[in-house]
Amino acid sequence: MSRIEVTSEVTGTVFQIEKAVGDAVEEGDEILILESMKMEIPALAPAAGTVVELRVAEGEAVEEGDVVAVIEGKG
Amino acid sequence: MSNEDSRDDFERRRARALAMGGEDKLARRCAAGLLDARARIDRLADAGSFIEVGLFGTSSVVPEDRDSTPADGKVSGFARVDGREVAVVSNDFTVKGASSSLTNMKKIGHVKRVATERGMPIVFFGESSGARMPDNMGARGMGALLGNDPTQYVRRRETPWASAVLGPCYGSSAWYTCLSDFAVMRKGAVIAVASAQLASLAIGQSVDPQELGGWELHAQHTGLIDAFTDTDEEAVDLIRRFLSYMPSHHNEPPPRVAVPAGSDEAAHAVGELLPQNRTRVYDVRRIVNAVVDRDTLFEFKPLFGRVAVTALARLDGRTVGVIANNPLVKGGALDAHACEKITSFLVLCDSFNIPLLIFVDTPGFTIGKEGERQRAPGKIMNFMAALQMCTVPKLSVILRKSYGQAYLNMGGGRNSDEVAAWPSAEVSFMDPAFATRVVLWGRDEAAEAELFAATRERMANDSSVWELASSFAVQSVIRPADTRRYLVRMLEVHEPRRTRGIGQHQLASWPTTF
Q1: ipTM of this model?
Q2: Which of A29, B165, B314, B373 is the S-S candidate for B185 at Cβ 3.0 to 4.6 Å?
Q3: Number of helices (H) and strands (E), helices first, in chain B?
Q4: CA–CA separation, B425 and B423 (whole Å)
């Protein structure tokens, strides 16, 4: 089992969390949506697996490169 | 020597030169799935068209190397690609690591001069260990071998240059890659100032060659390469494809080809590719693909500065350069890498008479700490100056957002020859939500909710496309479904007739890796 970190590609705020800890995700699924420059920017699952950590809450500020969630990969 | 003996002597010498570094080395390369220097030329050239110069060149510095340096490690000559002449330099790593020495540098100088004077592209197949030792050693080596050509690394872009990085590239192979208009790297190859071994010796740094200068570094972080492939064959094929879009030299327009069947089909539904919600993201490449001729999009640097898309393509059979914001990444907010990528692409298009299509959907330039540390203001101005100095036809289409300085950088106002907008376009200095806060600075939103709502609505209305059209800040408002037809027609209108399609090339000597 591999732990895969999901990072924020922008500096902004957490707009909406789409998945909960324990949810199964496919590669490319939206885990949460960030808001930056008035755009909604999804943080996507880089691989299929299970969400094991959500490190941010809605409304929280994030920096570019911050880990926002962790997925345990299927492989 | 009798005539017969001299003929035999010729054949023996020729066979020895063509044998490169010997059967063992060639067999090992073949087993590793690599093409040798001559096979790469065969893959590039139209069958039977390669004519070599310098086959009998050898080391002329170290006498004992004379018989072990066939073609002096760099195969050079001229070939046809799709019927057009190109000059070629193919490094032969099996001969002293294709290191640079006196004879082979003369060979490179010769084909560069011919290519420039006669008007043909140059293709470099890079795989070289750098300067040859001991030839270049000591003050005598340096004085004799280096610095003899004061224009060796000057790029005036009279003709296109393309490089494939197909092995270790240190020294001149790395320099020519950085000077090229198109650079493709085969995975496993390396571009660096000096090798990992030298880094270990000189500074005690232990580093993996891929970490030092592998494809991921250059594709994602430095942007020094435009494309990457798994095999030598694919890399050579990409160079052929790149050249198919390019003129042979700067004094002719790019070639025009037949329009592929079905090119009009996708254009009708292009508006449906834009999300209904103005804050949602999407991949702009789907829109561009639907507008240009079918299967002609040839993207540059797909993993670098991804908030912008730069690509060659064809429209109505003509080569065009595409610059687009890609909301899929960072919502389309332009960052420093995207500015660098667009600027270098503007240099290419301006140098070789390639009209520009600009697709606009950006909330502005990225703001905040990270960008400032990357010298974003300077990058934005390089990009802006390049756009304003670019003298090829520039047609822009505002799909959705165009804000602030980015409006100008993406061709807004008189920064393109024609600006069209979709009805979904919105243009302003900043997002209405931010602008409301600025004009009502210091007031309490909770206490004056109605005022805030009314102000926000007024700001949003004022951003609409109709205000732009009313003041002729856009020349046309078009149905998304008409975008292809509009651009085809406008490209005809803006053909530079007075100069037969040739621009002023004001960016031709700009660096692209600043």
Answers
A1: 0.86
A2: B165
A3: 19, 16
A4: 5
